[in-house]
Amino acid sequence: MNKPKIVILGAGYGGIMTTVKLQKMISVNDANITLVNKHDYHYQTTWLHENAAGNLHHDNTRVPIKDVVNFSKVNFVQDTVESIKPDDNKVLLKNGGEIDYDYLVVGLGFEAATFGIPGLIENAFTIDSINTARLIREHIEYNFAMYNNDPEKKQERLNIVVGGGGFTGIEFVGELANRVPELCKEYDIERSKVRIINVEAAPTVLPGFDPQLVEYAMNSLESRGVEFKLGTFLKECHPDKIVVEKDEKREEIPTLTTVWAAGVRANSIVEESGFENNRGKVEVKPDLRAPDYSNVFVVGDCALIMNKETERPYPPTAQIAMQMADIAAHNLKALISGSEETEEFVPEIKGTVASLGDDDAIGVVFGKKLFGWQATVMKKVIDNRWLLKLGGIGLLLKKGKFNIFH
Ligand code: FAD
Ligand code: NAD
Q: If we measure between CA atoms, which residue out of 178, 226, 179 comes closest to residue 205?
């Protein structure tokens, strides 16, 4: 009898954890497992803002796939998925090949939502991979280096705009607030000349989060020189300026550096491949299968699940992606062995912790508010926990965050 072919797309939180679980749960005699990913490494997306600001080297954020996936049990294909043909059980790859599957796990993550804002795709940076984070770090540093070599000393080299004051935008400005004084020292620039501007459309940053913690975050960031433009929409992005609008009044801000962190959508491959979708995401069945294809599981940011209490979708988070991986792996095993029922996915939201730089943070964990050093420690514990889950104590000791007390 032919062994069933399981193909996993993407080595992010959802995809790599599904793979790591499956390689332990399923014998090579029972199924062929293939993991497809663009790069030969996994990266912790949740650390990328630290790399983008230049506070943490990107090698700390990535893990070679061979270090956590057993290549004698899993076939690894380094390639870019171009499209999925769910009617034919095939995945088409950039390098021309195609892969057949009996069961598929889609874990291709997110991409920036740009809402059709003119100039964003062409001129703004986004924090979504090691490559984009490294580019932002280099670009900022280049402009600091250029400033004193530029006869005009253009202010736009020193104005850094971050669009969106959600968790990504706030975590990134927190890192920048710590990095900028170091860059100023290195390139002989007065700190007062540099502007870090956070543009948020809602009347407050972190809309919907605990107001006391939001106030704490704003005070912490403002005391380190971050300017907030609240109730302000980023309307256009040009190579050397942005246009913002507040109360129907427009303003131009000269800048060579706009980082767009104002929302995400599922990888557009999902929508383009013809899956039934809700604004680009697959609203999965309780056991994480696509409603229209019972051999396709969708995990992480490509999947949509509703919170029955709030009647709103759960936000796309690594926390949920890794929990989904546990259930997807369990359910695949159940289907292959034919002996067990599939399990329902029930998210267990433990809380939210956001960094404000390496030395400050805010959060709510199991209903308890945290800020300052307690939240900072908790954030690092969360980051370390992932490493432990993914690669055991060896990976934790190699890449873990142990500079807990400042
Ligand atoms: P991802 O982790 O994004 O992985 C997708 C994988 O697919 C990547 O390896 C990518 O290279 C690969 N891939 C993509 N396209 C292709 C293709 N065409 N072909 C082959 N491979 C492909 N969530 C939290 O819970 N806590 C946090 O503290 C937190 N912090 C965050 C900080 C930042 C800066 C950002 C941007 C997000 C943060 N999030 C956080 C959200 C979290 O990162 C995402 O929800 C999570 O990464 C989603 O996991 P995933 O497995 O769906 O996709
Ligand atoms: P988000 O959707 O949570 O926030 C985007 C923000 O941009 C919103 O506040 C929105 O009002 C604003 N915005 C939208 N359009 C705008 C415009 N034209 N001009 C100005 N502001 C505009 O997106 P995110 O921050 O990228 O987060 C994505 C997901 O990742 C979320 O689910 C989030 O919870 C998760 N995340 C979690 C953490 C953490 O837990 N520490 C950190 C980062 C991201």
A: 226
